[in-house]
Amino acid sequence: MDISVIVPVYNEVENVRPCYTELTEVLEGLGVRYEIIFVDDGSGDGSSECLEQLAAVDQRVKLVQFRRNFGQTAAMSAGMDMAQGEAIVTIDGDLQNDPADIPLMLDKLHEGYDLVYGWRKDRQDAFWNRRLPSQVANWLIAKVTAFPVRDLGCTLKVLRREIAADLSLYGEMHRFIPILAHWEGARCVEVVTRHRPRRFGQTKYGIWRTFRVILDLITVKYMIRYAVSPMKLFGGLGLVACTAGLASGLGAIAMKVFGGVDMTGNPLLLATVFACTVGLQFFVLGLLGEVTARIYHECQGKKPYRVRRTMNVQQTFRGNQRAA
Ligand code: UDP
Ligand code: MG
What we know:
The chain is α/β, with parallel strands linked by helices. It folds into two domains: about 5-225 and about 305-320, Spore Coat Polysaccharide Biosynthesis Protein SpsA, Chain A (Alpha-Beta Complex), CATH 3.90.550.10; about 230-300. It has ten helices and eight strands. It has helices at about 15-30, 45-55, 70-80, 100-110, 125-145, 160-165, 175-185, 210-225, 230-260, 265-300; strands spanning about 5-10, 35-40, 60-65, 85-90, 115-120, 155-160, 190-195, 305-310. Strands 7-5-6-4-1-2-3-8 form an eight-stranded mixed β-sheet, with helices on both faces. Strand 1 (about 5-10), helix 1 and strand 2 form a beta-alpha-beta unit. Helix 9 (about 230-260) runs antiparallel to helix 10 (about 265-300).
C-alpha cells in the first residue's frame, strides 16, 4: 500500500459520494496503490448507509463506524491506527479541501519532508466568527510554541506513517499535529492549498472551538516543554515562591529589629506564610507530575475511541483494547 487517505465524516450525507469520486479520480491519476479510510464519527443523517454502499462496491474503501460521535480528533486517530499506506493523507469529508492538491503535497514527501501541512491562504469561511478567531488563535499558537504555522485548522495534510504512529491525539489535538510531529523530530513544511466554500451540510464548529483550542494549547505547551520533567516547571515556580517568602520573612524581621514594627500586624508576615505554603505546594505538584510522567510513558496504548464495526479491514483491529 502506498497511500492511505483518511476522511473523518460526521453528518455529511450529500458530500460523501462526491468526495469519494473526487478522491478516486486524483488517486487513480497518480497510479499508486491506495486506500480511502472513511471514519464515520457517529453520523445519523444517512452518511453511514452511503459509506456502507461505497465500501460494498469498492474494496479500496475502508470504513470505520464509531458507536457515537467521538469528535474529529478521535476519528483521525482511528484512521491513522489502521492506515497501511506508507504515506497518510488527511482530508475533510465536506469537500472544502481540494483533493487536487494531494499530488503536490506528496511530491514534498518525496523531497524528504516527513509532514506537509496546508495553509488555506484564501479561506472560504465567514470572517467574524470563523476566520478572525482562527487567525488570532494561529498567531497565539505560533508565538507560544515558536513554530511557524499560519493555519492549524487545515485538515489537508500529508505525513509518513511512522510519524502518525508516534502521535497521541486527544481533545482537539488533531489541529496541533504539525507541532506535535515537529516535536517528534519530523521535518515539516507548509504549502498553500485551495479552499472551497461549503456547498452541502453545516460546519460542526462555532466560535467556542477557539476557546477549546486555546486550552489545548496550554496542554500542548506543557507536553512539549515539561511532560518529561514536570519538576523543571513546578520546582522552578516553587523556588520562586519560597525565595519570595524568605525575602518577605527577613523583611518582617528586619522591620521588627530596626524599626520596632509589630510583626503580627505586618502584612509581610502573611505574605511569607502564603508564599512558603504555595512554594511547598508547587514542589509537591512537581513530584506528582514526575510520577504521572513515568506512568504516562510506561503504559501507552490507551485509545481515545471505541469502534463498533469495521468493513474491509483485514488486519486485526486493536482499537478497543490496550496494546499488549
Ligand atoms: N467532523 C467529524 N467529527 C466531528 C466534527 C467534524 O468527523 O465531531 C468532520 C466533518 O464531517 C468534516 C471535518 O470533520 O469532514 C471538518 O468539519 P467541519 O467542516 O465542520 O469543520 P470546518 O471546516 O468548519 O472547520
Ligand atoms: Mg469544513
